[in-house]
Amino acid sequence: MKVPFxxxxxxxxxxxxxxxxxxxxTYDATRxxxxxxxxxxxxxxxxLLGYPSAVGMNSGTSPLHVACMIxxxxxxxxxxVPPFSFIATAWGPIYVGAKPVFAxxxxxxxxxxxxxxxxxxxxxxxxxxxxxLFGLPARMDEIMAIARRHGLFVIEDCAQAVGARxxxxxxxxxxxxxxxxxxxxxxxxxxxxxxALVSRRADVAARARLIRVHGMEQRYHHSIVGGNxxxxxxxxxxxxxxxxxxxxxxxxxxxxxRSYLGGIRLxxxxxxxxxxxxxxVYHQFTITHPRRDALREHLAASGVGADLIYPVxxxxxxxxxxxxxxxxxxxxxxxxxETCVSLPxxxxxxxxxxxxxxxxxxxxx
Length: 365
Known about the structure:
This protein is of the alpha/beta class. It has 13 helices and 13 strands.
């Protein structure tokens, strides 16, 4: 049986009529940049997930950039980030002239290790960006306690964790700002680029809303230096169509994950951690195995798609070669990059396909 790693077709075919009707309404009303569709999405998103408000933006990278602007990071400042994530986590500090400083991840969760985070703090450290990687909440109690002791601004990268909660609290409200991506492959995906910023702090949300439109409080009057981070009406229209399905899609992802956790018996494979502090929304189901490349080839030969997500940690990327951080600098992140492989996990997978994935993994020799 063929099992693609990801197939966006079934979801979009099921919603095609509704999505096209929403796009037509947006088109006819010429609501192309911000406007009613974006207002509706911000309100609906906040209401569904428990946020006081949401600020829609034009990509998942933009909220990270904007959050770093709000934090006041700049030249000479250091911002701690894990080296195992999508590269945009490190772009935010760089865009405002600050320096990303890497701190290793935990075994099992792929998330920032609080002890490594604290060890990386220097007198120049101004902030930290913990990532809730693959949909699993990071250990925010420890991270927040360390950040508060040192007076750091905390930006939660929730790009892969829409709908996840930490000890009952929505991710993104624990730190000073939370950022989301609605890239098409995400659990809640647009038909293009889109993102959002949330905050428990009204001043942060208000600042983000102002920065989003060139720092313009009234037309052609600019009170601060801002940028063009506006969400498009078409993307908001699609997201409004998808949003009512998010809860059921999340539950299906969790159901698939439970099947994998209960069914995969491959020797030496390490399955995703399930810590008590929060349940993952399983943007990815990523396992590790010492013979990862051979396992992936075996899965491909069995008709099962698998992907290598983040095979090169930040400190070994060419763009950061100038930092002089060689192999061995962050051993846990390096092991994860060398041994991880992600299995298919999206709501439209059939039970037969899930069983086929389990059988293929277990048949690896």
